[in-house]
Amino acid sequence: MDNELKRTLGVFDAVVVGLGAMVGAGIFAALAPAAGAAGGALLAALALAALVAYCNAHSSARLAARYPSSGGTYVYGRERLGPFWGYLAGWGFVVGKTASCAAMALTVGAYVWPGQQRAVAVAAVVALTAASYGGVQKSARIARVIVAAVLAVLAGVVVACLSSGAADADRLGSADWGAAGLLQGAGLLFFAFAGYARITTLGEEVRDPERTIPRAVPLALGIALLVYAAVAVAALSVLGSDGLERSAAPLADAVRAAGWSGLTPVVRVGAALAALGSLLALVLGVSRTTLAMARDGHLPRALAAVHPRHQVPHRAELAVGVVVVVVAATTDLRGVIGFSSFGVLAYYAIANTSAWTLDSGVKDRAVAAAGLSGCLVLACALPAASTVTGAAVLALGAAAYGLRRRLTRGI
Questions:
Q1: What is the largest CA-CA distance in the chain?
Q2: Do the Cβ atoms of 281 and 17 come closer than 8 Å?
Q3: Which of 51, 137, 158, 359 is most deeply packed, by most CB within 10 A?
Q4: Which residue in 76, 73, 104 sits closest to 90, CA to CA?
């Protein structure tokens, strides 16, 4: 069976897929824990996370233009650094992002029907896996609708907060903060910027990837940063960092504090839609990396099949969907952000190292070096439980790789 994917996505669709992954998971889920870590330095932490994300995006776009295949940094690490580093990037991405899929599904359940959170989460995974099975163009059309709706809701949050009498500029920041809190907050907020990776992992389905991907990645990242900054300023102006830290639903609480209680149900619907958009993009990205790893034998080769009519890695998508259903049905929402951030930062550390090896000028190498340094620093600054668990998962993947090599050599 032919296992090549069809190139159908242009710049606009690629940007929408990236935004669908970013604008949602991050702004609705990461603000509260980041505020708890960074305190009055929340906006500075957002800027630092964006700077590291920009360096990663620059390196990823250059690599994706050179290697326009499904798999993202799994492919780049394999081609530039060797099979082990590519495998380790793919392992970290698949494990971390599968957990993120479950977290997004549970977020949908928490906003739609809190009493039946797991049941709604499972239904969401099944529905979006079926949607992605229908083809990447169908997924891109769904992402357009979700992104438009979420941006409208976030615009309403910003207007409601900043136009209210409760807004106070003095709540936006404080001189009383430490470097450790700033770095930890940036590491947690990095979770909000990781979605542009979906663009590079879909590289085999993008038209004219040498031009499309380098345009789409910074566009998606720039739009997300503007949205995040506006929403963070709005929420801080009415709740302050302490109020954000204590809130389970910070944007809903922000509009309520601003005197717009009638907008709260709309924000809840927007949060559910945002989580659905992130879940859809995550399923797309994880399944494409699974496809690439299966092609190389690091996962069962049966997962490398591409549907002859829909032109999607249907077995990989179904396998990812099944695993996410199990995780969503058996775990809770808390603790996932730090773990996911660690895995993604490790993934981009390998991406920046791969980009360093490309024939390029001083500027490109400086960006790659800054991205690598930023990833390592933020990964180490995350909460200890996230760092230890993430490192253990990477070590487990490395051990599995070594065992497989020994078995294939007949030792």
A1: 73
A2: yes
A3: 158
A4: 73
